Amino acid sequence: MNYDHHYHAGNSADCIKHLALSLTLHILIRKDTPLAYIDTHAGAGRYVLGKEGEHLQGISRLWADRRNLPQAGTWLKVVGHENADGLLRHYPGSPALAAALLRPGDRMVLCERQPEVAACLRKTLGKRPHTSILAEDGYHALFGQIPPPEKRGLVLIDPPFERHDEWKRLADSLIRAYARWPQGVYLIWYPVKIRGTITRLWQALRERLPAFVYESLQMPEEGREQLFGSGLILVNPPWGLREALAAALTELGPRLASPQSGGSWSLRCHGWTAQHKD
């Protein structure tokens, strides 16, 4: 695997993804009943930010102005706790972010197939109660966890998109998961890069499950080989999430826009109800 979690940590994609994760969990924990959180591609949990890395185009652009970003406050407060002296040197990945927001009795299942990364994850969060860390393929492990005994929960699917069949695996796994646990909340991140691939993913999902999609673009969508932004697929978003996420993405969009685009950015929204084919 070529994906380097430490180099990519805190980039613009992480900012969009973790913003959405924090808003989703913040709403879900308002109910008193227990919650299950399942992360299929968890990573190491926490990261040290160096002088170089993609965080320079992500969280580092937001850090100095963080107090003027109220819509992103839940997420940035957790990042702030990781950097109590005010200097941005550490970044919480999705497991650490979820652990900071979930209640002590809420259960976490964190999947990371790379042994060395899973070992780091155990050092970071292995002592948290009600937490399972599985050194397994997240797609396979997911089906041993749903439906959870808590009946309520969130599944985060955030693959590295390096395998040639990743998009198909994502679509097939999400469709199967929804069929097994249609009450679950699902949050999926994908790169906005090749529109034809995204269109095929949407079409596959459109036939089997209802969803809402946000795409936050950091530059105009041109060419075929450049990453333009981040896509988020929401299945069963809790009440109020769509509006909160739109407001927060609008707040972050101008600050994460690529300088080479002249500050151009856009937010696109799509949604559909399932059109089942038998």
Q: Can you describe what's shown?
A:
This protein has helices at residues 5-8, 12-28, 59-63, 73-82, 94-101, 115-125, 138-142, 166-180, 195-206, 241-256, and strands at 36-39, 46-48, 90-92, 107-111, 131-134, 153-157, 185-192, 211-217, 229-235, 266-272. The chain is α/β, with parallel strands linked by helices and 278 residues long. The protein has a single domain (11-45, 94-272), classed as Rossmann fold (3-Layer(aba) Sandwich). Helix 8 links the parallel strand 6 and strand 7 (185-192). The model has no long low-confidence stretch (mean pLDDT 93).
Topology:
Layout: H1 5-8, H2 12-28, E1 36-39, E2 46-48, H3 59-63, H4 73-82, E3 90-92, H5 94-101, E4 107-111, H6 115-125, E5 131-134, H7 138-142, E6 153-157, H8 166-180, E7 185-192, H9 195-206, E8 211-217, E9 229-235, H10 241-256, E10 266-272
Parallel strand pairs: 1-4, 1-6, 4-5, 6-7
Antiparallel strand pairs: 2-3, 7-9, 8-9, 8-10
